[in-house]
Amino acid sequence: AYTEDEKEYVAILAGFASVAIENARLYEIATLDIKTKLFNHGYFQNQLIEEIERAERYKTDLSLMMLDLDHFKKVNDTYGHVTGDDVLIEVAQSIKNQVRTCDIPARFGGEEFAIILPETDTSSSIIVAERLRKSIENLRFNVLDAHSDSDEHFSITISIGITSFVHSVNMTEDILIERADKALYHAKQNGRNLVVLFE
């Protein structure tokens, strides 16, 4: 048997717990992309500004990757948008598996992703990007062929553009994104399934 004071105390604790759970839920909604569970575009932009400020203050390295799935429209057109969503989810999981807990992987939009790599120089970011490119190239997706009732398999590749923060230049988040995007465009124009560094 519980006293009235004990019951009231438990009720207060339950109230605090429910508020904490709701706050966690709201934080997830505000910061995560619903489909991929990577960080969303808004959170990415804010974190990039913070990481640039930190790199400037402490004179540390900072790199940024922009990633885009190759021929993703063909996946949607061939296998449907549900399969396309499955591909995005699997790729996002592969990205999460390949980065550190301090890195900030985000869905930039559509089939494009971005990763902020704090305290990471150019050579290290290239190693991470190559590892990531290979892991996605090795993914295998299965779909049921409606005509033959058998499984059909396909794979997908990704192009990656990288840039690094330069302390001697007044770099903003827009400049970093633009440089990584240019490197990504170069990878797309030169055969795809490539890692390209902005130079």
Give the strand line-up of the largest sheet.
2-3-1-6-7
In helices, the fraction of residues equals 40-55%
Structural class: alpha+beta
The overall pLDDT, averaged over residues, is 92
Please count the beta strands (DSSP E, at least 2 residues each).
Answer: 7
Radius of gyration: 21 Å
Characterize the biggest β-sheet: 5 strands, mixed
Distance between the termini: 73 Å
Q: Uncertain segments of ≥5 residues (pLDDT<50)?
A: none
* Percentage of residues in strands: 15-25%
CA-based shape: flat
* Oligomeric nature of the chains: single chain
Q: Could you spell the SSE succession in H and E letters? A: HHEHHEEHEEEHE
Number of helices, where a helix is a run of at least 4 consecutive DSSP H or I residues: 6
Task: Describe the overall structure.
The chain is of the alpha+beta class and 199 residues long. 53% of the residues lie in helices and 21% in strands. A 5-stranded mixed beta sheet has the order 2-3-1-6-7, sandwiched between helices. Strand 2 and strand 3 form a beta hairpin.
Give structural attributes.
single chain, 199 residues, alpha+beta, two-stranded antiparallel sheet, 6 helices, 7 strands, 53% helix, 21% strand, flat
Helix-strand layout with pairing:
Blueprint: H1 4-31, H2 41-58, E1 62-69, H3 72-79, H4 81-98, E2 104-109, E3 112-118, H5 122-137, E4 141-145, E5 150-154, E6 158-164, H6 173-189, E7 195-197
Parallel strand pairs: 6-7
Antiparallel strand pairs: 1-3, 1-6, 2-3, 4-5
Helix pairs in contact: 3-4, 4-5
